[in-house]
Amino acid sequence: MPDNTNTNSFQKQKNKDEMKKQLISFALMIGFTIIAFAIVAAEVMDKMFAVPLLLVLAVVQVAFQFYYFMHMKDRGHEFPAMMIYGGVWAAVLTIAALVAIVWW
Amino acid sequence: MSHDHSLNPETMPQEPEKATLEGKNKFLGLWFFLGGETVLFASLFGTYLALRNSTANGPTAQDLFGLELVFIMTMLLLTSSLTSVYAMYHMKNNDFKKMQLWLGITAFLGIGFLACEIYEFYHYIHEYEFTFRSSAFGSAFYTLVGFHGGHVAFGLSWLIAIMVRNAKRGLNLYNAPKYYTFSLYWHFIDVVWVFIFTVVYLMGKVG
User: Where, by residue number, does the polypeptide cross the bilayer (chain A) (predicted)?
Assistant: First the structure.
């Protein structure tokens, strides 16, 4: 089965293209991290505005990590997606409950 | 030996980590585990968010945290996530030596991260007398960040164990899933760290 192996040049090129995408995601993740630290270090932004922005930057960065670095965008990742989103669902409920009990 | 041949084929399949039933099971099992880990860390994050202002007249987040060290730690862990991507790239190209090399770099960066964290805790305890028992904030902080550090330490032991164990075997369909599941776990550790540096350190500094 010669066309199903990584010795063929088509597959090698595909792996290379994939690696390029991952390098771009890495650059973006570094960028998001630097923006997040800069927002806090500069101390110019209001707390009400800075905190949601920091959280959004974190969520975007994590999405890159899951979809590119951990290949969730690839075929055959329906079960992994279900498990992670199941976990995220329970996580959101847990955090909402624990934060809500100290709100008052 | 037919069994040996099926694990060491002449030409590796495109996705050696999922080419066997055992590999597929390990892949699904690890993702199931990560779903559970998400919930575990959520309970620690929720506890921290609930208790982070209960400082009992001890040091507060603003007194303690320094952004420089956290930034260095973030860069170390994020880069180690990329180096493990490189390792998996070489695994797919069936280049065992380069895979081991990039995993070695990953381990090196992970050790650097852990050393920074140990220094950080040491610094808090000795300079600020901020311990696990100082306040509810202290307990929640050390539990959350320490649990993540524990995961890094466990991941490092896992990585070094599979690297040493398979050093002379080379890549085959039996150990490819072991490497791949490790890389997923390592990325997940970085995911948790992204939320720790955001929620604990950056939001702690903002107030």
Answer: 23-42, 48-70, 82-103
Rounded distance, CA B19 to CA B16, Å? 5
- B194 Cβ neighbours under 8 A, 6+ residues apart: A58, A61, A62, A65
pLDDT tens sequence across B145-175: 999 999 999 999 999 999 999 999 999 999 9
What 3-state DSSP class applies to B10?
coil
End-to-end CA distance of chain A: 66
Of A4, A19, A40, the CB nearest to B13: A4
What are the pLDDT digits (tens) for B71-109?
A: 999 999 999 999 999 999 999 999 999 999 999 999 999
Query: How far apart (Å, rounded) are the C-alpha atoms in residues B79 and B100?
Result: 16
CA distances from A92 to A57, A87, B156 (A): 17, 9, 29
Chain A nearest C-alpha distance from B202 (Å): 6
User: B38 pLDDT exceeds 60?
Assistant: yes
Cβ contacts of B47 on chain A, cutoff 8 Å: 98
* Chain A residues with CB-CB distance to B37 below 8 A: 87
In single-letter form, the type of residue at position B199 comes to V
Are B11 and A5 an interchain contact pair (Cβ–Cβ within 8 Å)?
yes
Return d(Cα B112, Cα B94) in angstroms, integer. Answer: 28
Closest CA to B131 of B64, B82, B86: B64
Scanning the structure block, which residue is given the tokens 């951990």? Answer: A70
- Contact between residue B59 and residue B204 where contact means Cβ atoms under 8 Å apart: no
Residue closest to B63 by CA, chosen among B124, B141, B148: B124
The 3-state DSSP class for residue B174 equals coil
Identify all chain B residues contacting A79, using CB atoms and an 8 Å cutoff.
Answer: 28, 31
Distance from CA of A52 to the nearest CA of B (A): 10
DSSP H stretches of helix in A3-77? 9-42, 47-64
